[in-house]
Amino acid sequence: MGVPHFLVLPYPVQGHVNPLMQFSEAVIKHGCKITFVNTEFIHKQANNSGEALDNLKEQGMRFVTIPDGLDPEDDRSDHQKVLVSIKTNMPALLPKLVQDINALDSDNNITCVVATMNMGWALQVAHKLGIKAAFLWTASAVSLAACYCIPRLIEDGIIDSEGVQIKKQEIQLSPNMPVMDSADLPWGGVAKIFFSHIVKEMKNLEFGEWWLCNTTSDLEPGAVTISPRFLPIGPLMESDTNKSSFWEEDTTCLTWLDQQQPQSVVYVSFGSLATLEPNQFKELALGLDLLKRPFLWVVRPSSDKNKVNNAYPDEFHGGKGKIVKWAPQKKILNHPAIACFISHCGWNSTLESLCSGIPFLCWPFFSDQFFNRSYICDVWKVGLRLEKDENGVIVKGEIRKKVDQVLEDGDIKARSLKLKELLVVDNSVKGGQSSKNLEKFINWAK
Ligand code: UDP
Fold first, then answer.
1. Residue 432 is part of a domain; what is its CATH number?
2. Which of 155, 292, 358, 433 is the most buried (most CB within 10 A)?
3. Are 245 and 324 in contact (CB under 8 A)?
């Protein structure tokens, strides 16, 4: 009998591809095989033929593609459109893909399908084909716990059947979990159609025997025990590079960082999806100018054709800063010149910063990012909130004030370093709880 062969399917966004790639690297180290399924569109954009991947390919990783059902010129920043197209078109294509892969590799047929959120249909297809299936949740365990608890939240009158909170109140998903704000539930503020999608997706997830979480029981002790299916295997940090970037990384910022003082630079990035309104963009630019320190700001080309990320005000000087379109984020967070991170609190960015011991200034936009902010500021106490003013804008004075405040707070830095130690040493190394859980999962797949 051959080694386990995983067919892995990320939803086509950077925040799913990255952790699934890290997962792939981790299981390859255990001698398993991986077939990584990207949409044709993403495969082209991410250029998975780069040198960074050669090593992995030699060790048993293969890339295949599947069409997302849209035309090449369709707008992939319209997630509703992408989601509907994927769910309509891909399920019928997967059995044939599995058959073709197995025909090529008859000694090593696919033993297990692993998919991320929105790709739950693949678990159902796997079930029909008699193949094992698991789900990789790429956000925090507490946000999965919230989705898992939807029926109870409705029953308890916290949200209505469309996911809307009935009144603002504190909630506790289980007795050993922190008290959270019901306004921070991960589907708050998104279209109702996404809530009903989540409800359906939770049914698909039942076809996955394990719900692998990119977290640790130290970070979220209560959340990971909410169901026996939760299996914390994080932080998935196999290497210090993101091997499948959707945009070209500008590495000149690393040489620029080399020239800066230790712990002096404010790093600003809002991940791969969030965009700022022009007036908010201006305020941020002016706020960065007000800092008496260097900054490194990622201004991603907008994927939304109707929004541009270039509303620099005339007064913007930017002399102390460096602006790039896309950065090698993990290397940046591990650079000694970085002092703090103005972050949208996406889960990957949160984990990467925690693993580097960098304090946060939290600027969440949507979905699980509000829960993440609450853990960063109130549970782990490794960052501060950037507050909006009465017009809903984070103004330049607030940015300057909070940067000063977070950097003057020795306790925040000390807790960040302690958490880094806990995450990097206690979990990822052989014998740590997450690595034991990963072994348990691989043995199950065998
Ligand atoms: N990232 C990067 N370069 C950048 C900005 C982000 O490589 O300039 C990576 C980052 O390291 C993380 C991912 O993009 O792995 C973003 O995922 P996250 O969950 O933080 O946010 P999302 O993009 O899903 O909102």
1. 3.40.50.2000
2. 358
3. no
